[in-house]
Amino acid sequence: MSTRTHKITLIAGDGIGPEVSAxxxxxxxxAGKQTGCTFDWHRYDAGADAFAKTGEYIPKALYxxxxxxxxxxxxxxxxxxxxxxxxxNVTLRKKFDLYSNFRPVKSLPGLKTKFPDIDMVIFRENTExxxxxxxxxxxxxxxxxxxxxxxxxxxxxAQSAFDYAKKHNRKKxxxxxxxxxxxxxxxxxxxxxxxxxxxxxxxxxxxHIVDNTCMQLVMNPWQYDIILTENLYGDILSDLCSGLIGxxxxxxxxxxxxxxxxxxxxxxxxxxIAGQDKANPTALLQSAVLMLHHIDETDTADNVQTAxxxxxxxxxxxxxxxxxxxxxxxxxxxxxxxx
Length: 339
Ligand code: ATP
Hints:
Elements: E1 4-11, H1 17-35, E2 37-44, H2 48-54, H3 60-69, E3 71-74, H4 88-95, E4 100-106, E5 119-125, E6 135-139, E7 142-145, H5 151-167, E8 172-177, H6 185-197, E9 204-209, H7 210-219, E10 226-229, H8 231-245, E11 254-256, E12 261-264, H9 282-294, H10 298-314, H11 328-338
Parallel strand pairs: 1-2, 1-3, 3-12, 5-10, 8-9, 8-10
Antiparallel strand pairs: 4-5, 4-11, 6-7, 11-12
Helix pairs in contact: 1-9, 1-10, 1-11, 5-6, 7-8, 9-10, 10-11
The protein binds adenosine-5'-triphosphate.
């Protein structure tokens, strides 16, 4: 068996980041041994940890590493509320123009939730909208945030969603918006979605208003196949959808651009459970599975996913967030044993 080595930038993150990253790395290395692939991890801090060591929130060496490896696996990095530094996640996505945030939301076997058999995908525009970070204080009592929506940003995320739908035989794309109120910005977003949709007559296209979508998602989530939306709505709907399948510990994500890709879970740094061996590494592990597909390690990806699903189907070694009794490390060991 030939050995393939993949150079990957690894940002363990903070909060539960180091625990879920260590678990994920141990599973990937065990899986790689079986399929002949090894990982050359280039490890970097980001955020407050990096600032304490280097004086920079995102060290230049980290930027250089991502430019070099073009693939990063990233744990959560805390963004302070209010003052402090701007979001590391948002900064990295903008710096590398990772315009497509891809988040598959799929039920895991054996998990009892109110909504069985969910299988949908969220395509969230990742660089614009109210996350552009353009804010001004007009006067001490008036703050203003700018919502930036462009033809380029909207068209390319719509194109990603429809290309994926066609490739993976998905039937429906729903564009989610609030164009009844934000007529210009969300109106432009919808026009771009419709322009792309017209090129895919075999895929059903519909438009839903975001507040109605929240209600629809908790009444009949099965009506959705692909959700295509702007940055802020996508962030909120991702957390809602992760709740449908068992919580934030499960849902993976990929930030994709034309040059680089960063794979990270939907969840944040979960400071309430950090350092207690309680975090569920499934979301980062499933993000790593997306990464393995991205680097053409399909067999390794399938083996990891199969082992993970086996552990869920058995239901004996699950973490507390999904009703189990086990810790992060024991869960990772169970997945390795199931490989
Ligand atoms: P952010 O805005 O930074 O994305 P968030 O609002 O999504 O963060 P989290 O930090 O992800 O918030 O945590 C929300 C809740 O979900 C917390 O109670 C946390 O403990 C729980 N949670 C998040 N991730 C996990 C995980 N991997 N395992 C178990 N529980 C988790």
